[in-house]
Design goal:
Elements: H1 3-24, E1 33-39, H2 44-47, H3 54-62, E2 64-70, H4 76-85, H5 105-111, E3 116-120, E4 132-133, E5 136-137, H6 147-150, H7 153-156, E6 159-161, H8 165-171, E7 177-181, H9 197-216, E8 225-231, E9 243-250, E10 257-259, E11 263-264, H10 265-275, H11 291-294
Parallel strand pairs: 1-7, 1-8, 2-10, 2-11, 3-6, 3-7
Antiparallel strand pairs: 2-9, 4-5, 8-9
Helix pairs in contact: 4-10
Amino acid sequence: MKHAAILRILAALTLTMTVGSQAATPPPVAFDHVFLIVLENTSYARAIGNPSLPTLNSLARTYGLATAYTGVAHPSLPNYVALISGSTFDSNSDDTSQRFEGDNLALQLERAGLDWKGYFQGLPSTGWDGGAAGDYGKKHNPFMLSAVIAGDPARRAKVMSLDPLKADLKAGKVPAFVMIVPDVCHDLHGALNCPPGRALQRTGDVFVKTWTDAIMASPAWSGRSAIVITFDEGTDDAGGGGRVATVVVTTRGPRGVKSGLLHNHYSLLRTLEEGWGLPPLREAARASPMTDLFGP
């Protein structure tokens, strides 16, 4: 057999083996679990260095802190929607009768064979679709603002109160993506019936400590997992929604890192999507991922 013919056969065999290997190997999943804790309406300057927020600041020093991270809109509701959908859909209100159509992170995860849940402090019952109830506010619940999720009983069953989370963590039965949202007396925003000033801040910090401790003591805190603590919006207009502190705690990522790169809610969404091998949605496709805080 001539030398040229032998080379052609070898090349064909190599191509066949490469294609077969690619088809048989699924794309890598970077994150085993991501826990997203969303707090409220606090500027970066009021969060970082605040002695009433010792847990938040300790985590920021020990792990990773985004120093140039912003919300994308005012008021609250469009920021929560942006965190899972990659868009505010031009919403500029807290009107909870709004329904947002189309894709979001939860639906992407389902198609990839991964799961998600939302735990909302004060939610009256699993999948409850009312507005405000006690200290719970629907404007902070992007899953129930999604037309696809709100219209599907099986998906609504994944939107629950905070109460089951501790048992789920102890049992190691938490999904790939978990969103945790405190009520208005624990999210640093407050209301007339909540403790004022420093007492409100200390209450919020205790919330952060309670749940970060529980997560990091659970079987789910293994592999490549992360806790992200951010705020829906700040008190200025930087980036459209104000500069806020965003803390990234990881099992394997960098330690004692500050990132001064421009990031926002779309950057966070893109980071999570890329970690799970998902295409970035809407504005997330134009944002830079936060690999400087999560690690490679």
